[in-house]
Amino acid sequence: MAMKSVYSPLRLAFRTSHEKLNPWHRISGRIIYFLLLNHATWYLNYFIQNGIVYKRLTEFIIIIGITSFLGITVLFSTALEVVRRWNYRLFFVLHFILGLWTLPMLIFHVKELRPYMVEALALLFFDLVCRKMDTITGHATVTTVTGTKLVKVKIPVPPTKIYRFAAAPGQHVYLFIPSESRPSNAGYPSIHDLLFNPFTVAEVSSTDVTLVMRTGSGPTTLAIDRLTSLTKAKPPIDIEGPYGTAKRFPDLVDSYDRILLVAGGVGATFILPIYRHLRDEMEGESTSPDRLKFIWSMRSGAEASWAFDTPAEPSLEDDEHVKIYFTRGNADDRPRSQTADGSVELDDLQQVEKTIKATGGKARPDLKKIVDEIFRFGNEERIAVLVCGPQGLARDLRKHVGSWAMNGREVWWHDETLYAYIFSYFLASLSVFPIRLPTMI
Ligand SMILES: Cc1cc2nc3c(=O)[nH]c(=O)nc-3n(C[C@H](O)[C@H](O)[C@H](O)COP(=O)(O)OP(=O)(O)OC[C@H]3O[C@@H](n4cnc5c(N)ncnc54)[C@H](O)[C@@H]3O)c2cc1C
Ligand SMILES: NC(=O)c1ccc[n+]([C@@H]2O[C@H](COP(=O)([O-])OP(=O)(O)OC[C@H]3O[C@@H](n4cnc5c(N)ncnc54)[C@H](OP(=O)(O)O)[C@@H]3O)[C@@H](O)[C@H]2O)c1
């Protein structure tokens, strides 16, 4: 169930994505751990009651069993949401290493387990090989988005693979930094050997895909940020994918009367391609895109500039269906001077902030008002709402949309950021109208 590869047998059998299988992986993991806990405690109880604790606990198969159980306990506890949120890397590294270590150990614990362990190891190996074969190494152009902590990474993709990226907007890739592109102090082995970070494909052309990422405090985004200082060189970057549920979304244009898209900051890497796709689809069907509304809240105009340098695309500012909000006056991350005195960048920045207008206003969007306006068009209308951005934004939007859904309105809801917190997504996916569970999520 944890297999990410497009050739995962369960993925193919259920015609689904690994993101949708992942919640079942977690639930089955919890059930298995509960059963193992019973197995371990009941055996211990049996040994104690029969006075054979010392004799049995010194036997090889029991030592292997106890060691494996302790390993699985660490694996289980570090997979809890609280740990994942606190330190994703700790969870990821331990999950991978302990998972890999436990399988061969259990082969020696009891012979009845052997076929299952061999089967699991074979699937793990198959998954790794498929993913490796599905990885593209491209010599990337890495540039800063002036006046922000955003970095734009343009990666060439061979013509034989680009169609998969163009197949649906809103897909993501896992990015891996090969040794040639790592910081010189990264050492060997390096933390980068274990990092595959997800980034949404913000743009697809006939030759490249473009990612836009906010530099944080973690190793991947920091290492990519350093590559922006290479003015001429094109460092190799590995991407694996594309992944995501976007390919399996319902036909939003035909199935829903209105579509509300809400993006916060860099969350527009997911929402903007979907907006452009839906708008083109509506125009292609000669229906007016009046049913479509795109709200994009960001810190300052500079944060949107990456979306404005696609010459073929109509400007978002002149589009009456798009509302842009600036919430912090100026770009608070600026300036990252590229010249000795920083003046060139500041000029660019002022230019950007002058040309991109806050068509919605200079404050956070009033989500309640926006939602109410959409739902008040007609009681019979079915509404699709998609959101990607900071958790608070998605939570507030969910609350406002939820109160309409509670009153019987039909809503299709998709919060892309929930994939980071899959269990909530699982709860949401349990109900026909997922929005009906706002207090649980
Ligand atoms: C599907 C998806 C698409 C995303 N798209 C974008 C985007 O287009 N632009 C952008 O700026 N940010 C995006 N993010 C967030 C981005 O992945 C993190 O900000 C980035 O990985 C941080 O890397 P780091 O080196 O700074 O920190 P790290 O310490 O490596 O990671 C920080 C956080 O990133 C998340 N993360 C890291 N690796 C994984 C993984 N393998 N699977 C799931 N979550 C992980 C975890 O929440 C973690 O706590 C996306 C996240 C997801 C889940
Ligand atoms: N596919 C994915 O899963 C995916 C893709 C891309 C990004 N992401 C995630 O999206 C998030 C975007 O982060 P960011 O750093 O770009 O965001 P940010 O700059 O901190 O915030 C973006 C905008 O959202 C506004 N906002 C925040 N909470 C709000 C609320 N409750 N109501 C209304 N507006 C609100 C902010 O206003 P203020 O300035 O007033 O705070 C700001 O204008 C990250 O967590 C990233 O991981 C996920």
Give keywords:
441 residues, alpha/beta, Elongation Factor Tu (Ef-tu), domain 3, 3 domains, seven-stranded antiparallel sheet, 12 strands, disordered C terminus, binds NADP nicotinamide-adenine-dinucleotide phosphate
Short description:
The chain has 441 residues and is α/β, with parallel strands linked by helices.
Number of DSSP-assigned strands: 12
- Runs in which pLDDT lies below 50 for 5 or more consecutive residues are 420-441
| CATH architectural arrangement of the largest domain | 3-Layer(aba) Sandwich
Strand content: 15-25%
CATH class of the largest domain: Alpha Beta
First-residue to last-residue Cα separation: 23 Å
On the 0-100 scale, what is the average pLDDT?
85
CATH topology of the largest domain: Rossmann fold
Query: CATH superfamily assignment of the largest domain?
Result: Nucleotide-binding domain of ferredoxin-NADP reductase (FNR) module
Give the radius of gyration. Answer: 25 Å
Count the domains.
3
Bound molecules: flavin-adenine dinucleotide, NADP nicotinamide-adenine-dinucleotide phosphate
Query: Total number of helical segments?
Result: 15
What characteristic shape results from the CA principal axes?
globular
Structure, described:
The protein has helices at residues 9-13, 18-49, 53-57, 60-78, 81-86, 88-109, 114-133, 159-166, 219-226, 252-255, 268-284, 343-355, 367-375, 391-406, 422-430, and strands at 135-139, 141-144, 150-156, 172-176, 197-204, 208-214, 236-243, 258-264, 292-298, 322-326, 383-388, 411-415. With 441 residues, the chain is an alpha/beta fold. It folds into three domains: 9-133, no CATH class; 135-246, Elongation Factor Tu (Ef-tu), domain 3, CATH 2.40.30; 249-439, 3-Layer(aba) Sandwich (Rossmann fold). The strands form two sheets. The chain has a seven-stranded antiparallel sheet, with helices on both faces. A five-stranded parallel sheet has the order 10-9-8-11-12, sandwiched between helices. α2 crosses α4, α6 packs across α7 (114-133) and α13 packs parallel to α14 (391-406). The protein is globular, with a radius of gyration of 25 Å. The two termini are 23 Å apart. The model is unreliable at 420-441 (pLDDT under 50). Flavin-adenine dinucleotide (FAD) is lined by residues 88-89, 172, 195-200, 211-214, 216, 218-221, 266, 269, 419-420.
